[in-house]
Design brief:
single chain; mainly alpha; Fumarase C, Chain B, domain 1; Fumarase C, Chain A, domain 2; two-stranded parallel sheet; 18 helices
Length: 480
């Protein structure tokens, strides 16, 4: 049961909603509903005695155009129809469900001034698992106008539902902007991508630990005194996790080399920034999914409307850019460790972990697959925040591009899991061929789990299924 009260929604709840097909158990706060209704009544009253953007005026560059009394009943529908111009692919069911939950929660913060009827219809749709047909394209990080307009029109009965549906409800004059004034679709994708990257970075400790064992790594690089000397939070946490997985709390045996390649030796220093960046991104998203972003904001406490720029998501876009850049660096280390695993100087095994006749290729192809995926990740890591946009006749002269940053984060996660899977396939194969002793190490559980899933054959053969199975293990590894 997910609590929806405008204050306490968690990123994990968003993931749960995205992965739940059909009805979703939500507990909608009655007090929050009452607060939202009070804001609606105040917004209606304010519109009779002062200018309120989007209610008594047009939007964007039309902000000075008044809405006459005779036009008011249709104003909301006209705004929704004109903004429901989304295009491109249809948004995934998971992102759509997450978007709807986030938007419902934001509305229950009680500052939108949206009619209770429309809030109730959205809650019913979330609760029953109804999904509107929503397109991906139509936002640049200053409000997901097109996706949310399409959602609102589905609630009114003017647009189709992909799954299920709810009885149509009317739209009041001030409802259109109040419903659209949010980045819920972008926040949905950003949250799902952030949580996926969080899972992958946790799993990467386990994958790196297995490679460390296969390569007889030097434990000094993870020693407590080393990281106490430069105590960045993520770096310290990574080193501690490696010590745990590798059973280093006592006196670990010395490694094969006085110093390992950077893939092992610098892992805490490179993984640390990624852990810190993801932690910061999750903090940003926790604020955003519980935030009142509607412009104007209706304040029942101050009995007034405030025009502002909460629709601008620079916090989200810059945090996403940082995460993708740091994850790319960690992925580079994974590819480097894969290179070490196919090198006889580091493993004591044949080149490419081959078996059989001379000239056998073993896992040679894994390097090509990993570098292909790494190149995709590199492209996804390019900063979205360096773009610019001037729209609506020059009135809206800046954009965060958090929407594009979130899409890139999704792509980064897909690429990174392929990189990790390639390293994992090679590490498990090396450990099998070396018959490594893992009896006393916490990482043994990971090895046994992987060994039970990955094909034990070491003859030259296609490794496509092995990579796919390795990807499927990463969620489990994140919990070891």
């Amino acid at each position: 049961m997910i609590r929806v009260d405008g204050r306490t929604l968690r990123c994990a709840d968003v993931v749960t909603a995205a992965s739940t097909e059909g009805p979703l158990g939500i507990d909608v706060s009655i007090a929050a509903l009452r607060g939202a209704e009070s804001a609606w009544k105040l917004a209606e009253e304010l519109s009779t005695r002062r200018i309120v953007y989007g209610r008594t005026t047009g939007v964007g560059a039309n902000k000075e155009d008044p809405v006459g009394e005779g036009e008011s009943p249709d104003h909301g529908l006209r705004l929704l129809r004109s903004h429901a111009g989304g295009s491109g692919d249809v948004m995934s069911p998971g992102q759509t469900r997450a978007m709807m939950l986030i938007r419902l929660n934001q509305l229950l913060a009680g500052r939108a001034g949206l009619s209770p009827v429309l809030i109730g219809a959205l809650a019913d749709a979330v609760r029953t698992g109804a999904l509107p047909l929503v397109h991906r394209l139509g936002a640049i990080g200053t409000g997901d106008l097109a996706p949310l307009a399409e959602t609102a029109l589905a609630l009114t009965g003017e647009r189709p539902w992909l799954t299920g549906g709810v009885p149509p409800v009317p739209v009041q004059a001030g409802d259109a902007l109040a419903f659209m004034s949010s980045n819920a679709a972008t926040l949905a994708e950003a949250t799902l991508a952030a949580m996926r990257l969080d899972t992958l970075t946790r799993a990467s400790h386990v994958v790196a630990a297995l490679t460390y064992i296969a390569l007889d790594g030097n434990p000094e690089a993870y020693a407590t005194p080393v990281h106490e000397a430069r105590p960045h939070a993520g770096q310290v946490a990574c080193a501690a996790e490696m010590r745990r997985l590798l059973g280093m709390e006592g006196t670990p045996k010395p490694g094969r080399r006085i110093q390992d390649p950077f893939g092992l030796r610098a892992f805490p220093q490179v993984q640390g920034p990624a852990l810190d960046a993801i932690h910061y991104l999750r903090d940003v998203l926790a604020v955003e999914i519980n935030a009142s972003t509607e412009n104007p904001m209706i304040s029942t406490v101050h009995q007034d409307a405030y025009h502002h720029a909460h629709f601008h998501t620079a916090y989200v876009s810059t945090a996403l850019d940082q995460v993708r850049a740091t994850v790319h660096q960690v992925a580079e280390l994974s590819v480097a460790r894969l290179g070490d695993l196919v090198e006889p100087e580091f493993t004591g095994l044949r080149p490419f972990l081959a078996a059989g006749p001379s000239g056998s290729s073993g896992v040679m192809i894994l390097e090509y697959v990993a570098h292909d995926a790494l190149t995709e990740l590199r492209q996804a890591a390019l900063p979205a925040t360096l773009g610019t946009a001037v729209v609506s006749r020059g009135i809206e002269d800046h954009a965060s591009f958090s929407t594009q940053a979130a899409r890139a984060a999704t792509a980064a996660g897909s690429a990174y899991q392929q990189v990790l899977a390639c390293e994992l396939v090679a590490a498990v194969r090396a450990l099998r061929m070396r018959k490594a002793d893992l009896v006393s190490l916490p990482a043994r559980d990971a090895y046994e789990t992987a060994a039970a899933v990955l094909d034990p054959s070491v003859e030259d053969r296609p490794l496509t299924d092995d990579i796919a199975r390795a990807v499927s293990l990463l969620d489990t590894f994140a919990r070891i």
